[in-house]
Specification:
The structure is a homotrimer. Chain A is mainly α. Chain A is 79% helix and 0% strand.
Amino acid sequence: MAGLNKLIESDVFRAYATYATIVLLKMMLMSLVTAYYRLTRKVFANREDAAVHSKGGDVKKFLRTDEDVERVRRCHLNDLENIVPFIGVGLVYSLTNPDLFTALLHFRIFAGARILHSFAYLIPLPQPGRGLSWLIGYGVTISMAYSILSTTLYL
Amino acid sequence: MAGLNKLIESDVFRAYATYATIVLLKMMLMSLVTAYYRLTRKVFANREDAAVHSKGGDVKKFLRTDEDVERVRRCHLNDLENIVPFIGVGLVYSLTNPDLFTALLHFRIFAGARILHSFAYLIPLPQPGRGLSWLIGYGVTISMAYSILSTTLYL
Amino acid sequence: MAGLNKLIESDVFRAYATYATIVLLKMMLMSLVTAYYRLTRKVFANREDAAVHSKGGDVKKFLRTDEDVERVRRCHLNDLENIVPFIGVGLVYSLTNPDLFTALLHFRIFAGARILHSFAYLIPLPQPGRGLSWLIGYGVTISMAYSILSTTLYL
């Protein structure tokens, strides 16, 4: 298992492991925020969930959409759309032996931008706050993808 | 290519490979369930799909939403939201040299919980069936993330 | 860090790195297409986005859904549902020491099918264009999953 030990001994891979875990935890937090809004606003998508809260009354009244719930859901979906490429591209990038300083710069900026993006989406901040934080995260992933394709291309 | 051979010779990594493949296949199955409901209920989201089934008749009548189709789609999206973190966090976790027994326990509980979650969503079972199966899967990923951050942190 | 160097020296892993990056970039492109349609059609989901374009006028008029925007969003979600399994299954597959020619065949067909799928969805082409391109990508991932489970199973 020497190969395994060596992988996790690499500083770049440890940095990837840390930041990948952080951004995935941040994305998972969106599930809890959605649940919080659904429970406090009593807004549900499924009959069996509404049934718990109707206490024998009208179930349909709890089966509706709510702007705040939809906002969290859009924020969650935006995370999926942007964090999935980061996880995939970042993993490959961290295995192409990049410079540690450069790699850390990419990971830190991405994590910071996505955390800002969530705040900008959920507060919400006026534009271009959310747009810029999205663009910075997007640019970091593009930069890592460019680095992979320019060093590792095998078509 | 000694490094590659060694990675797949690790029992923990083989376990990850197996369970990651199983939960991703389970998630892919949701696409087939959606297609099945769309075709049997004749409920489509795209004009070109409805056109195949309208046979020259009114296309619009097939362009609607259906509660059963939406339910499968919510189940599929919930898979994406929960299985993506498992794949990313689980990969890194399996490379931090965890104890084989502990790792297998995490992977098996997660896979079981997500399979139960799909049944609870699609049958549907009354709450808290679905809620608990979701929470167990969520907790497994959090536990692996905690293990990564406590052994590998590199900020 | 010999382990790391060896991983990226493997032709199969380099091929995976290349095609994973390509399909993730293709998926990220959907964000730009969505933004393009939202800006040119002036169709927004968030008040703070609509506010930028209403210039003091009625914000609500820009808060609507548009069939073309929804189409791109469905295409993007379909990418997530299909490219996520490819990234996860493909990574594990490329670490099970598959034959280089076979692996390249899988990766190339998947990337080609998903690019065709996007064109078929966005033009849109009449069915079964989109259905077939979806099925081919789906089949490639199933084939890699079968290969993993038949060589690496560890339950």
